[in-house]
């Protein structure tokens, strides 16, 4: 049952990621990215990372991708010319890299069964680890988020501010 | 039960798709940012896979930080794109060559 969930979410993730990379229409590619995040969240739920899966859906699909969609709608980014001649080279590169990793994994004989992280109270344990051992890094990340918020507001508003000063 | 190798291979494939997407959409800055998000998701899948393999939650903390930094990066990047569009009326990457050395 769980294997089927992983199989479906993995195939869906790869297909929607391909659509993100290959689609010529930005709106379609934003929605494909949303879909690939949803498949990733399903996979993380199967692995027992419930808090991260829900954070992915709420923060990424809910907020960041909505921001992407907003910018794509606001700016006229349809049908920009693409670099077609290099497509074959890139696909060869991708096939070579993925194939070599696959061969490495196959021939290393590494059979590692995955277990879930002890599912009871995953969120609680994550919070304890975050605020007990990694509290300094949580504060640093909070400062970075605040700086990015202030920075993006200032970037977008700076023209009207400078006009007011002139 | 599922094996780690499956998840490692999956994340590798998604990462390579992200790289190919960056190469294909070199002109479209928004598409480049989206493909970078795809690459970050691949890295996160790897983190969670190995965190579960070692039964250690520190990989999940790393994923948490990666998600937060990626959200900040997306906000700043999109603000820069809005400013660029205001100035050049396009976000085609070829048009931003004013810092390039005049040959």
TrEMBL record, chain A:
Name of this protein: NADH-quinone oxidoreductase subunit J
The keyword DNA damage is assigned to this record: no
Assembly information from the UniProt record: Composed of 13 different subunits. Subunits NuoA, H, J, K, L, M, N constitute the membrane sector of the complex.
Membrane topology classification: Multi-pass membrane protein
Catalytic activity: a quinone + NADH + 5 H(+)(in) = a quinol + NAD(+) + 4 H(+)(out)
Primary localization: membrane
InterPro entries the UniProt entry points to: NADH_UbQ/plastoQ_OxRdtase_su6 (IPR001457), Nuo/plastoQ_OxRdtase_6_NuoJ (IPR042106)
GO molecular function: NADH dehydrogenase (quinone) (non-electrogenic) activity
Entry function: NDH-1 shuttles electrons from NADH, via FMN and iron-sulfur (Fe-S) centers, to quinones in the respiratory chain. Couples the redox reaction to proton translocation (for every two electrons transferred, four hydrogen ions are translocated across the cytoplasmic membrane), and thus conserves the redox energy in a proton gradient.
E.C. numbers: 7.1.1.-
Family matches, as Gene3D superfamilies: NADH-ubiquinone/plastoquinone oxidoreductase chain 6, subunit NuoJ
Stretches that traverse the bilayer: 6-22, 29-47, 53-75, 87-105, 134-156
Locations listed in the record: Cell membrane
Pfam families assigned to the protein according to its UniProt record, in alphabetical order: Oxidored_q3
Superkingdom of origin: Bacteria
Enzyme's top EC category: translocase
Keywords, ordered alphabetically: Cell membrane, Membrane, NAD, Oxidoreductase, Quinone, Transmembrane, Transmembrane helix
UniProt similarity note: Belongs to the complex I subunit 6 family.
From TrEMBL, chain B:
Role of this protein: NDH-1 shuttles electrons from NADH, via FMN and iron-sulfur (Fe-S) centers, to quinones in the respiratory chain. The immediate electron acceptor for the enzyme in this species is believed to be ubiquinone. Couples the redox reaction to proton translocation (for every two electrons transferred, four hydrogen ions are translocated across the cytoplasmic membrane), and thus conserves the redox energy in a proton gradient.
Top-level EC class as recorded in UniProt: translocase
Keyword Protein transport tagged: no
Annotated protein name in UniProt: NADH-quinone oxidoreductase subunit K
Native source organism of the sequence: Candidatus Comchoanobacter bicostacola
Positions of transmembrane segments: 6-24, 29-49, 61-82
Key words of the record: Cell membrane, Membrane, NAD, Oxidoreductase, Quinone, Translocase, Transmembrane, Transmembrane helix, Transport, Ubiquinone
Family the UniProt entry places it in: Belongs to the complex I subunit 4L family.
Subunit description: NDH-1 is composed of 14 different subunits. Subunits NuoA, H, J, K, L, M, N constitute the membrane sector of the complex.
The reaction(s) this protein catalyses: a quinone + NADH + 5 H(+)(in) = a quinol + NAD(+) + 4 H(+)(out)
Membrane topology note: Multi-pass membrane protein
InterPro entries in alphabetical order: NADH_UbQ_OxRdtase_chain4L/K, NUOK/Mnh_C1-like
EC number: 7.1.1.-
Protein location: Cell membrane; Membrane
């Amino acid at each position: 049952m769980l294997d089927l969930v992983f199989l479906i979410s993995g195939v869906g993730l790869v297909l929607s990621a391909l659509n993100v990379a290959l689609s010529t229409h930005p709106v379609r590619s934003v929605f494909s990215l949303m879909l690939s995040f949803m498949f990733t969240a399903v996979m993380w739920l199967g692995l027992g990372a419930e808090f991260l899966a829900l954070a992915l859906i709420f923060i990424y699909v809910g907020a960041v991708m909505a921001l992407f969609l907003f910018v794509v709608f606001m700016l006229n980014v349809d049908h920009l010319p693409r670099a077609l001649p290099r497509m074959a080279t890139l696909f060869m590169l991708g096939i070579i890299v993925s194939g070599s990793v696959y061969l490495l994994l196959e021939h290393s004989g590494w059979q590692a069964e995955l277990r879930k992280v002890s599912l009871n109270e995953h969120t609680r344990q994550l919070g304890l680890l975050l605020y007990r051992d990694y509290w300094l890094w949580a504060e640093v990340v909070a400062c970075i988020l605040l700086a990015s918020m202030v920075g993006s507001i200032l970037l977008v508003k700076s023209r009207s501010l400078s006009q007011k000063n002139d | 039960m599922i094996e780690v190798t499956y998840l490692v291979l999956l994340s590798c494939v998604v990462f390579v798709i992200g790289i190919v997407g960056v190469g294909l959409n070199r002109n479209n800055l928004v598409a480049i940012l989206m493909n970078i998000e795809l690459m970050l998701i691949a890295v996160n899948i790897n983190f969670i896979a190995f965190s579960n393999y070692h039964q250690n939650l520190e990989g999940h903390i790393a994923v948490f930080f990666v998600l937060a930094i990626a959200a900040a990066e997306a906000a700043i990047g999109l603000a820069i794109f809005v400013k660029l569009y205001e100035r050049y009326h396009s976000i085609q990457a070829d048009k931003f060559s004013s810092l390039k050395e005049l040959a």
